[in-house]
Each structure stands twice: as structure tokens, then as C-alpha cells.
Design goal:
Order of helices and strands: HHH
Distance between the termini: 12 Å
Strand content: under 5%
Number of strands: 0
Number of helices: 3
Largest sheet: none
């Protein structure tokens, strides 16, 4: 989730765990 965290820096960390954001 470190990569998605960089892409979605404005999105709260708990949302990064959601599958639809991983896609």
C-alpha cells in the first residue's frame, strides 16, 4: 500500500486498504 499511498496522498490510509482503490 506504500505505492498507492503515494498516488493517493490526499486519501485517508484506511481507504487505501479498500480493494477498489488497489485496482
Amino acid at each position: 500500500n506504500l505505492s498507492t499511498n503515494n498516488l493517493h496522498g490526499s486519501v485517508p490510509p484506511f481507504l487505501l486498504e479498500m480493494p477498489y482503490l488497489v485496482n
